[in-house]
Amino acid sequence: MSAKSIVFLCLLMMSTAQANLLAINKIKSELTQVGKATFSFMFWDIYESKLYTQNGSYSTTSNQPLLLDIHYLKDITRDDLLENTVEQWQYLGFTKEQYGKYLDTLRVLWPNIEKGDSLALLYANNQSHFYFNGELLGTIEDTKFAEVFLAIWLSEKTSQPALRKRLIGEINE
What we know:
Layout: H1 3-30, E1 32-41, E2 44-53, E3 66-72, H2 78-91, H3 96-109, E4 118-124, E5 127-132, E6 135-140, H4 143-154, H5 161-167
Antiparallel strand pairs: 1-2, 2-3, 3-4, 4-5, 5-6
Helix pairs in contact: 2-3
């Protein structure tokens, strides 16, 4: 492969990454922040989360686009992320039949997280799009996935009711 080809491929890859970052920033600019919350365990802050919708309010009956953006304050492995996700689904009463079909997809999509990274889920047009540091990781087209995944933070039965209230704008952080 020639040097020109290598430079072209590098520029193409950079352009794709920049286009993805611009895309998620454009999406955020078209949505309105509903609320924000920090999740802490004991005395460690684990992540900061923000919820965005089209009209700036959260409703369980709305089918408007929704973005949950999580900025990590600690390193977390993909396996720990998956394990914690399953624990939360079990806490909420979801059966393995309801969430199990998503685990292999999430294992492929999700990277190991380092302090400073962000993982975001955009739900729009009945599809769930995951972004890592602004770059599209992939899409889950199952319409039930967003409901099951977002329940971790947005269900009235969540293990973190104060965090939920902050995210949905009922109380300020």
